[in-house]
Design a protein that fits this description.
171 residues, Nuclear Transport Factor 2, Chain: A, four-stranded antiparallel beta sheet, 20% strand
Length: 171
């Protein structure tokens, strides 16, 4: 596994997904797949809309993935806690990477089509199932397609920092 692929897998794992093992299965014919820009994450049916801090935490979580899909790495990195960014950079440099900022790591990772495809599939198929908030911490339980036809459910922690929700690495 290349250092950049390892870094992308580390980022996915930091978000709670084990999407990086083994080779990718063959992709469906291009005519069968919708263009990436037309995909929109959807929420699982729920009894009613979230309100208050739960809604704010979910909004931050969704904004992170929207930023990644848009390749707005400045916005994505701004939605991470310092802990998350430090772990991402540490994993990247441990594999010999030379980037020194979160934005550079993400830009290099997304420059590789196979890695971008994995990350895009995660963000495009993300479905928020629940959000819980306790004080300045929150947890977003969500699922995504880690491989064609295979979904995984995980919980991603968030922390309120200076009044705004930011993604934390899993504990």
């Amino acid at each position: 596994m290349t250092p950049l692929r390892t870094t992308m897998c580390t980022a996915a794992l930091l978000l709670g997904l084990a999407a990086c093992g083994g080779p990718e299965p063959a992709a469906p014919p291009a005519s069968a797949a919708p263009p990436a820009s037309s995909a929109t994450p959807t929420a699982a049916p729920e009894p009613g809309p979230r309100t208050g801090e739960a809604a704010a935490a979910e909004t931050a979580f969704r904004a992170y993935y929207e930023s990644l899909r848009a390749r707005d790495f400045t916005a994505a990195c701004a939605l991470q806690t310092e802990q998350f960014t430090s772990l991402l950079l540490d994993a990247y440099t441990a594999q010999g990477g030379q980037a020194t900022t979160c934005e550079e790591v993400l830009a290099e990772a997304y420059a590789k089509p196979d890695q971008a495809a994995v990350a895009d599939r995660l963000s495009e198929t993300a479905q928020v199932e629940a959000v819980s908030v306790e004080g300045d911490t929150a947890s977003v339980t969500w699922s995504a397609e880690v491989r064609p036809g295979q979904r995984q459910t995980v919980a991603s922690p968030l922390q309120r920092v200076d009044g705004r929700w930011r993604l934390l690495p899993p504990t």
